Amino acid sequence: MKKISLKLKLTLLYTFFMALLTCASLAILFSLSNREVLSSTQSKLENRVQESVEYIALRNGEIRIDSDFYSVARDVYLSLYDSDMYFLYGRVPHGFSQ
Known about the structure:
By secondary structure, this protein is α+β, with helices and mostly antiparallel strands. The protein has one domain (6-90). Helix content is 48%, strand content 15%. The chain is built from one helix and four strands. The strands form two sheets. Strands 1-2 form a two-stranded antiparallel sheet. A hairpin with a 2-residue loop joins strand 1 and strand 2.
């Protein structure tokens, strides 16, 4: 280590800290973008479910479901289940089990 010049030592130290700062910045950016994607997806799902309430009506003790409930909007599939998680109506994406 004694034979390495001071200029080279400082360059290596500077390079190490710049690489460390770059990695930390990228980690923060990836973490924030991941949270934003999750938040956006959750918001989209909540809005779609709230909008779908108008397609369901209860008449004479029977559930009446409008045909618009069956459509896929904004890449969200809607499914209706009873309290025992028995599938009643809707669509399930290919590859998902009911």
